[in-house]
Amino acid sequence: MRIWKIWACAAAIAFAMSGASDRAAAQTYPNRPITLVIPFAPGGSTSIVGRVIADKMAQLLGQGVVVDNRPGAGGTVGTKFVAKSDPDGYTILLGYTGTLAIGPSLYKDVGYDPRKDFAPIGMIGNAPSALVVHPSFPAKSVAELIAYAKANPGKVNFGSAGVGSVNHITGEYFARSAGITLVHIPYKGTGPALTDLLGGHIPMALAPIPAVHANVAAGLLRALAVTGKTRNGLMPDVPTIAETGLTGFEASLYYGLVAPAGTPRPIVERLNKELQAALASDEVKKQLAADGTEITPGTPEEYADFIDKDEKKWSELVKASGVEQE
User: Fold this and answer.
1) Which SUPFAM superfamilies match (predicted)?
2) Which residues lie below 8 Å from residue 132, measured CB to CB, with a gap of 6+?
3) What are the residues facing 171 on neighbouring strands?
């Protein structure tokens, strides 16, 4: 009994000291620059959103927030890097539907668990994608695209940010729903995919609206549809895929911030506080709205719950599309 009491007392002291240490760390946090890992190449929607948030949070935190683009394997390379990083609040990740909801189902050994290996900080926002084609492509509507693909099976290529990215699975989901065959061309990010699309090297791509709307407005790309439940404010004349006849079709991506599991709670709370302040600022609201991103702020717990539900949804789409990787 005496030994048990000594052990219990020691455990209580250790717990108290741990809590005190976490609070002390939070009081001095941050005292050096923070690295925000974006798991895709520069130029895509993740970089657009991530850099807006990084710039504003740097002002609010009083420390630099350095963006580190780490592309590869549909964003899972950079995501795994953060999962294995020190949980001290100085390496955080721009979480994304492709990496936290799709990757774990797409790959047999993705190298991280979206529920266990991260401490959610908070959601940023969501945005649908656009189905865009090069102006030289003969289809001017989704119906014409489907008819063309049926007449030319296996000859219509589409680009995405990489194997396992949201728009890869969305493309497979679209093809399956339409009863057509599309050939996926993976790139190391949305930026490289759009470069090839603009150059006419591929005829079609699925890409986030923030990354394509300027080129659509300039007539350099043609938007056939958007993947959300409703039309997007940046492209009000472009129908949803569901409107074109594929009833019930909907696929949007979500962004948020996460840190490695084990990051002290006070640090997570500090980051969430400044993230909420950033999202509430007129400057960030204007920048994200201009890029078609709907702000959806929330608590760490709300984001954790969303990650769980989003992973379940997309895992079903991955299995239904039959695109699991070794």
Assistant:
1) Periplasmic binding protein-like II (SSF53850)
2) 197, 204, 205, 206, 207, 212, 215, 216, 221, 222, 223, 224
3) none
Whether residue 114 sits in one domain with residue 42: yes
Instruction: Report which DSSP code applies to 293.
Output: P
Is pLDDT at 222 greater than 60 in this prediction?
Answer: yes
Query: Same domain, yes or no, for 224 and 150?
Result: yes
**Same domain (yes/no): 6, 119:** yes
Contact 277, 205 (CB under 8 A): no
Contact by Cβ (8 Å): 36, 124? no
**Residues 174, 178, 180, 185: what is their CA dihedral angle, to the nearest 10 degrees?**
-10
- Reduced DSSP (H G I as helix, E B as strand, rest coil) percent helix, strand, coil of the chain, to 5: 50, 20, 35
Phi, psi of 79 (to 5 degrees): -65, -45
Predicted TM-score (pTM) of this structure: 0.77
Q: How far apart are CA 55 and CA 280, in angstroms?
A: 14
* CA–CA gap between residue 298 and residue 111 (Å, rounded): 27
The CB density around residue 117, as the number of other CB atoms within 10 Å, is: 17
- Is residue 128 a contact partner of residue 252, using CB atoms and an 8 Å limit? yes
For residue 101, pLDDT beyond 90: yes
- Phi, psi of 237, rounded to the nearest 5 degrees: -90, -5
Please answer whether residues 193 and 161 qualify as being in contact, where contact means their C-beta atoms are separated by less than 8 angstroms.
Answer: yes
Maximum alpha-carbon separation in the chain: 84
- Residue 254 tokens read as 């979500």
At 118 the three-state DSSP class reads: strand
Classify 173 as helix, strand or coil: helix
Check which CATH number belongs to the domain holding 227 and give it: 3.40.190.10
Q: How far is CA 5 from the centre of its chain?
A: 49
* Cα dist from 273 to 57, 216, 266, whole Å: 10, 36, 10
DSSP bridge pairs for 294: 126
Q: How many domains does the chain have?
A: 2
Round to whole Å and give the CA distance between 74 and 163: 5
Mean of pLDDT values over 193-203? 97
